Amino acid sequence: MLKTWFRRLSGTDLIMYAIGVTVTIAIIWGSLATLASGKYSLPQWQDLVVFGLAQGSIYALIALGYTLVYGILRMINFAHSEVFMSGPFTAYFVARALDQSGFLERSPVVGMLIVTAASMLTSLVIAILVERVAYRPLRNAPRLVPLITAIGASYALQYVFRGLYGSGVERYPELAIFKGEWFLAGVRVLRTQAVVIVAAIALMAVLYVFVMLSKTGKAMRAVSEDKDAAALMGIDVDRIIATTFAVGGALAGAAGILYVLIFGQVQFYMGFVPGIKAFTAAVLGGIGNVPGAMVGGLFLGVFESVGPSLFLDGLGIPAPYQLKDVIAFAMLVLFLIFRPSGILGERLATKKA
Amino acid sequence: MAILELNDVHTYYGHIHALRGISLRVELGEIVTLIGGNGAGKSTTLNTISGLLRPRQGDIRLYSEDLRLLKPHEVVAKGVVQVPEGRRVFGRLTVTENLEMGAFTRQRGEVAAHMERVYALFPRLKERRRQLAGTLSGGEQQMLAMGRALMAQPKVLLLDEPSMGLAPVLVDSIFDTIRQLHGAGTTILLVEQNARMALQVADRGYVIQTGEVILHDTAANLRENESVQKAYLGVS
Questions:
Q1: Which residues of chain B have a CB within 8 Å of the CB of A211?
Q2: CA B100 to CA B97: how far, in whole Å?
Q3: pLDDT at residue A351 in the model
Q4: B31 to chain A, minimum CA–CA distance in Å?
Q5: Is the pLDDT of residue A347 over 60?
Q6: Chain B: nearest CA to A196, how far in angstroms?
Q7: Does pLDDT of A314 surpass 80?
Q8: Kind of pairing, strands A181-184 and A187-190?
Q9: Cβ–Cβ below 8 Å for B92 and A221
């Protein structure tokens, strides 16, 4: 077996493996050097991990939108980052109105729930609209075509929202209840981070139960396996697809509010980076796989938060934290080379059993 | 009284004229079979009835209701349910979930009773109800595909090549099931390559060639027909 493996090895493979080995050695070397230097204290590491978890749970929520749509249409919805942006950007005006009337001060929890609902609803509507206008008419077109309209829809939405709300950066009102920090078993967790992580996990649990147990969820899984067979069972495939977009949109809208809790501001361009990171997370977890998107999101969040200090600092690279995007996307490339099916994705060969 | 009736149906794949004026009818409680070679248009006929393909011309009626412009899921809701060729079970859903999908158009309250009936018909499926459908054998998958369609309580059941790719023993058991369904009063339109078996269970048959009905008669007469024997029954 080893012999045939050797014979099949091509020049490109050798280079790929060389890259893989080099990167692995660099990561281990860098980590050891960083840890040996003792430059970061334990609480600092803990801070990075907690921040990564919070950031990662936002990625995970957005990634679910990519992965649900991919699962059902085998298509990357590149407009999803704008679906994510539309929610919190629109809800900002709700938040501002509630803030000016003093309602947000008096009952912050109810207020934030209203803002979140507004955000989820907006993203949901935008997601359905994108599907209806940009994808459904092209359902039977070659796969490259909806990919291009996806990019078109993404830009169109960005500039529609810029036209509607302006290109400035808007700051959400700050709420006293989200200030402060808790200590869990000696680990410092900012209140906002705790809210983000708990809310994201709760939403993911709800989604998982929905997909696994509800009639619509089962129909979504059936449609994702075989559209024609599902139609022959009396399932309205178009409606299930629209529902899938709606669910992904609502999750993205919720993720948008969680994003605001951490970063505090919105802007028409805010969807781009989280969107592409969430897409990365979906691929890391195994695109089309719901638990994979969750795992991939958390993994990417922690990896890019801890990674710069852990791997790069020890190698003597200055200002490593600015390289966190490099780390995230380098990992994407490595995954695409060595495990394209992702962490939880099935091998393509075993998919059609 | 004809329950399902096709009148001069023409279907195209792009420019290819696949059905050239198919007319047929299925009476209540009958088994009608379509026989014909590869590419004759048998599956195309079923897919046109099911709404997966849209005929360019002609009439498809269930009782007197027009099915021609309905979408596949609406055709199912009217009571015409197809078991597609190659079984097409949902491999990553459990057996029970597959059956639930078959009952998608039914009220929630009825599902349990229908499922018990399907399990009574196919006890094998009950043993494996928690298993993923993809792990079942070919014969079990065919049972599941049929059970799944029966969950919708069809007025007309369309069976597309139920014996395809099955060992002879399993083919017999599938045809036994078809007889059983017939005995229970189910109306069936059966498409089969295995013309010999099909003509044994059917009441009447249509012979299709290049998108046209070239012959229709009772199954008994078709079995005796010389050209049918030569072309489809392997009698020389």
A1: none
A2: 5
A3: 41
A4: 20
A5: no
A6: 32
A7: no
A8: antiparallel
A9: yes
DSSP-assigned states of every residue in A149-181: HHHHHHHHHHHHHHHHH-SS-EEPPP-GGG-SE
Which segments of chain A are extended strands (E)?
170-171, 181-184, 187-190, 265-266
CB contact under 8 A, A231 and B97: no
- Report the distance separating Cα A223 and Cα A244, nearest Å: 10
> How close does chain B come to A236, measured CA to CA in Å?
6
> Is residue A334 predicted with pLDDT exceeding 80?
yes
The pLDDT value given to residue A346: 63
Cβ pairs A/B, distance under 8 A: 75
* Confidence (pLDDT) at B236: 59
Question: How far is the alpha carbon of B49 from chain A, nearest alpha carbon, in Å?
Answer: 11
Dist CA A206 CA B75 (whole Å): 33
Q: Sketch out chain A's domains with CATH numbers.
A: 42-342 (1.10.3470)
Shortest CA distance from A224: residue in chain B: B90
The strand ranges marked E within A145-271 are 170-171, 181-184, 187-190, 265-266
Cβ atoms of residues A137 and A153 within 8 Å: no
What is the token pair recorded at B181? 């369904």
Query: Which superfamily does CATH assign the domain made up of B2-79+154-232 to?
Result: P-loop containing nucleotide triphosphate hydrolases (3.40.50.300)
The ipTM value here is 0.91
Report CB contact under 8 Å: B104, A226: no
With contacts defined as CB-CB under 8 Å, which chain A residues touch B77?
234
